[in-house]
Amino acid sequence: MKISMIGTGSFGTSLAMVLDENGHDVLMYGRNDDTVHEINQEHSNKNYLKDIKLNETIKATNDLEVAVAHGEMLVLAVPVKAMRTMARTINVILTEQNKKVLICHVAKGLELGTHKRVSEVLQEELSENNYTDIAVLSGPSHAEEVSLMLPTTVSTASVNESGRKIVQDAFINKHFRVYENKDLIGVEVGGALKNIIAIAIGILDGLGFGDNTKSAVITRGLHEIARLGTKMGADPLTFMGLTGVGDLIVTAMSEHSRNFRCGKMLASGQSLDDIIENMGMVVEGVNTTKAAYELSQQFDIDMPITNVLYLYLFEELSEEEAFYSLMMRDKTSETDGLIALMKNRIDSE
């Protein structure tokens, strides 16, 4: 299969390696001429995957028209904030080329302002005549480990069964296992909202809090993800899977996670603007925190961790005030969250 990887960041590069290993004809697209040259001539991408050697069969181009013309499937590995513009441009090219492709995105976030999931953004910008399906590939998958071919398991979801089966078949191999999932909303929401909790855990780690505290925030954070996700139309059971608790654990507990690292840097006294400027990669959890906070207000959903993090990031709430507001909330029941949502889901069947 001819597949174009739109984006030359760490995750896009690691996924290109998976696809190449599976025998697909992979062409990467990137805007940076130096990165494209490095991939083609040196067979590396050291800005993102320092010590990884790429197969010579992986090629790159800085011409988006060439990349779109090449691919039967386009894998969009660009940040959420760039997704709408990229989709709009690709749509024009597909129309000019009179071409229909399968679209798969790997972004994890909500669009700022509209609060839309990435597949919704793509549906708005792509003409129905230009794509067969829009899928997402998501789950606990650090690019660094994928590139080292360490065992990784993810999920793919789409509206149409045929689309997600093609994505599953394209990516699955002995070290990269792909499950299919019917719940497109849940898979996208879980992948987006876990970044919020990862920033919070990074802050706690940087401030010296222990495993007890971090475990509590991860667990209660999962409840918040499920509350909002279910309100948005997701199946609550999805959040007990790879794109829920699985992705939450890997993102909130690893130095590989840029969201976790962002939290640690904040705890050390660095400003959010400086962190974003110096990170070198997009910290999706920052914008997603704002979007989720606004959605919690819109839907009148109790999301205390998200709300406190929003105030900490954007309203200068102190660490002491944030900790006090979480620990001294009104008494409630543990089952007023994910467990209750799951029970209601099971009872309704």
UniProtKB/TrEMBL annotation:
* Top-level class of the enzyme under EC nomenclature: oxidoreductase
Domain Glycerol-3-phosphate dehydrogenase NAD-dependent N-terminal: start-end pairs:
2-161
Biological process terms from the Gene Ontology for this record are: carbohydrate metabolic process; glycerol-3-phosphate biosynthetic process; glycerol-3-phosphate catabolic process; glycerophospholipid metabolic process; phospholipid biosynthetic process
The pathway entry for this protein reads as:
Membrane lipid metabolism; glycerophospholipid metabolism
Q: Where does NADPH bind?
A: 10-11, 31, 48, 108, 143, 258, 282, 284
Question: Coiled coil where?
Answer: none
Question: Which InterPro entries does the UniProt record give?
Answer: 6-PGluconate_DH-like_C_sf, 6PGD_dom2, G3P_DH_NAD-dep, G3P_DH_NAD-dep_C, G3P_DH_NAD-dep_N, NAD(P)-bd_dom_sf
- Free-text function comment from the UniProt entry: Catalyzes the reduction of the glycolytic intermediate dihydroxyacetone phosphate (DHAP) to sn-glycerol 3-phosphate (G3P), the key precursor for phospholipid synthesis.
**Can you say what this protein is called?**
Glycerol-3-phosphate dehydrogenase [NAD(P)+]
Species for this entry: Phocicoccus pinnipedialis
